[in-house]
Design goal:
Length: 115
């Protein structure tokens, strides 16, 4: 049997941009992606701490060290600059490996940079 488990989490980052007229997705600083073991094109959930919105999209890599967290496309209507978000991805693994699996957890500072 296989189950889905938390693979990666960027916890309490701040939205720095919202680009309504973009194709879609979330742009995330490459440093944060690397620390969270996320890759460009990966499906993620974005949870908005400020208003409770939850949505799924895919990742676009942003410039390293920029601190960028940009909601693109229609999702820009659900998340505003300054909102605090949690970005999560999941992996499907064998049930017997789930108890020993350790997810990548990233806790950026107030500027979306690694502490």
């Amino acid at each position: 049997m296989q189950i889905q488990v938390l693979k990666s989490k960027i916890h309490r980052a701040k939205i720095t941009q919202a680009e309504l007229h973009y194709v879609g997705s979330i742009t995330i600083d490459k440093d944060l992606l690397d620390a969270a073991n996320m890759v460009e094109g990966e499906k993620v959930q974005v949870l908005n701490v400020n208003n409770g919105e939850r949505l799924e999209t895919y990742v676009i890599s942003g410039p390293k060290g920029s601190g960028v967290i940009c909601m693109n496309g229609p999702a820009a209507r659900k998340m505003q600059v300054g909102d605090v978000v949690i970005v999560i991805s999941y992996a499907t693994i064998d049930f017997d490996k789930a108890n020993s699996f350790k997810p990548w957890l990233v806790f950026p500072d107030e500027n979306n940079r690694l502490p």
